[in-house]
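Handout, section B. The chain below has 176 residues.
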Amino acid sequence: MRRAVPDEHFLIGELTVASYRTLEVDHLWGGYADEIRDVAGRAETTQVLVARDAGTGGPLGAVTYATDPESGWVEWAEPGEAQFRLLAVSESARGRGVGETLVRACCDRAVADDCSVLIHTTQWMPAARRLYERLGFTRRSDRDVPYEEWAHGEIPDLPPVWVGVPFLAYTWSPRR
């Protein structure tokens, strides 16, 4: 596991979009697939981490770690909070600890940055929520973000199931 290099950006974008396509409810509306594929742009202001297969060298999973609110990848955070986004594991690597390794890497970076972690997920990501809870994240319904606050207007291809559904907040703090 390490920071992604430019030669990996395309594969990481495709892996992440493919991972999101396996979700029960569409998460790729409103141009989000294009944002996800812009790994090079994201890597300019965040840390894009990749877990690689020791045998083939191919990416097994990736995540974006961010601390700078100006990056566009930190949302609804308070000062002293880092975030990670776009945690994705290839379908063939699920159940092998890749997601846990990536989340722990983000938590290690947060400790080094003297930050706690705030993340948002959805009700349609149960495996991710189980992972976060197992790793000591605390569910924070007081920090959920309702769709109406997040959307900032109409999104033409928004699936109706999203209307009125909040993004679910979790926090993690290092033991001091």
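Note. Residues 98-112 form the longest helix (15 residues). Compare this with the example in section A.
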